[in-house]
Specification:
Elements: E1 4-8, H1 12-23, E2 27-32, E3 45-49, H2 57-63, E4 73-75, E5 77-81, E6 87-91, E7 97-101, H3 109-119, E8 123-126, E9 137-139, E10 148-156, E11 162-166, E12 176-182, E13 185-192, H4 199-213, E14 220-229, E15 238-239, E16 242-244, H5 260-276, H6 280-287, H7 289-302, H8 306-317, H9 322-330, H10 334-346
Parallel strand pairs: 1-2, 1-9, 2-8, 5-11, 9-16
Antiparallel strand pairs: 3-7, 4-7, 5-6, 10-13, 10-14, 11-12, 12-13, 15-16
Helix pairs in contact: 1-3, 1-5, 7-10
Length: about 375
């Protein structure tokens, strides 16, 4: 008998889960409340990080059953500026990250995953909001609160391909400003972890600064965009037959917000739990939570540094063997295990769980909606 599964949310986590389940002969239906995939993105470039694991990101994609039918350009070099605009180059023989584009049209990660899902016979129902899953299923509804935000523009430029970042609290409080250029298309933004209400002022400073350090940077056909990310630890990843994946499970890099590996890996693990009748929460604990806890400790330490501390970190990473240094930073250690209780006590997600979480609850949104009644 064919098994049926419903998935709420057509983001990378939900689509990866669906593709793997369809290959195991599940009949999969995805419900997406927006009119297309990648609806909250605007063609902006993002980085699929390649430093947190020995496993290359492209190998990871293959392992979780994903083909590359979208822009996935490797970058071995990152130009980084400190608050005094001192320039350092971080280089690696292995790709530091893969540039991908987000949105709902050809060339974008979201569109490419949708195409693969469609070829696998998966039904995707757009413009359909689902509030309850009576028989359980997979929840991939994305972030529900803003623990970090990005404010920026996408634009055209004649400047050469570039990957650059600035660490300066005057541009990106406790975060970073970045510029990514690929084949005449570009994304510039400030990624902030504090003082969200002044986002426009911070972005204007960011744009002025990038123009200063890159005199050849020209900007045409600029369009504004914004985004946000959410991470937390204190909610179950499996509850009442519902498998939470990606940011719906709080799975996100707490230091810099590089969450695509978390999202796609969690989707794969949810599918594996269903196919092989495994404990999903145990899979998450073994494969993702240790690294995420280390990232929260990194966030705790980073927020104590300030601009002088950022300058030291930049010089340290630019001093050779950058990939090994970043990988060590991102992975668990005895010291981070000791510091995690302090970091978790100090940091509280902006997501406040107002749901009932009662026995037999079938609510999809009850993690953030007080009015939901089971």
């Amino acid at each position: 008998m064919t098994k049926k599964i419903e998935i709420v949310g057509a983001g990378p986590a939900g689509l990866v889960a669906a593709i793997n389940l369809a290959r195991a002969d599940f009949k999969v239906t995805i419900y997406e409340e927006k009119p297309d995939v990648g609806h909250r993105f605007h063609g902006d470039f993002q980085g699929l990080e390649n430093w947190s694991s020995e496993e290359d990101a492209v190998v990871l994609l293959e392992r979780v059953g994903i083909q590359i039918n979208y822009t996935c350009q490797l970058y071995n070099e990152l130009t980084v500026f400190d608050a005094n605009l001192n320039k350092r180059i971080i280089r690696s023989q292995r790709p530091l990250f893969y540039l991908v584009q987000r949105g709902g049209w050809p060339g974008c990660l979201d569109y490419g995953l949708m195409e693969q899902a469609s070829r696998s016979g998966i039904e995707i129902v757009f413009n359909k909001r689902v509030d309850k899953l009576e028989s359980g299923g997979i929840i991939g509804i994305g972030p529900r609160a803003a623990d970090a935000i990005a404010k920026g523009i996408i634009f055209n430029t004649t400047m050469e391909d570039t990957a650059a970042a600035i660490l300066d609290d005057k541009l990106a409080p406790k975060g970073y400003a970045y510029l990514l250029i690929y084949k005449g298309k570009a994304t510039m933004a400030t990624c902030m972890f504090r003082d969200f209400k002044n986002e426009r002022e911070y972005f204007e400073r960011t744009m002025e600064t990038f123009k200063k350090v890159f005199p050849k940077l020209n900007i045409t056909d600029a369009k504004e965009f914004g985004g946000y990310g959410n991470f937390f630890f204190d909610k179950p990843a499996f509850e009442n037959g519902k498998y939470y994946v990606g940011e719906a499970a709080g799975l996100q890099d707490c230091l810099w917000g590089f969450g695509m590996r978390y999202a796609m890996t969690s989707g794969f693990l949810a599918a594996r739990a269903l196919i092989e009748n495994k404990d999903y929460e145990a899979l998450i604990r073994d494969n993702l939570i240790p690294m995420q806890k280390a990232s929260l400790v990194n966030r705790f330490l980073f927020e104590m540094l300030g601009n002088n501390g950022y300058r030291y970190c930049i010089n340290y990473l630019a001093g050779g063997n950058a990939m090994e240094k970043i990988k060590k930073l991102y992975n668990p250690s005895f010291l981070k295990t000791l510091l995690y209780p302090v970091a978790s006590w100090r940091y509280k997600s902006r997501l406040i769980d107002k749901g009932c979480h009662g026995e037999g609850c079938a609510c999809v949104w009850c993690r953030c909606r007080k009015e939901e009644v089971c």
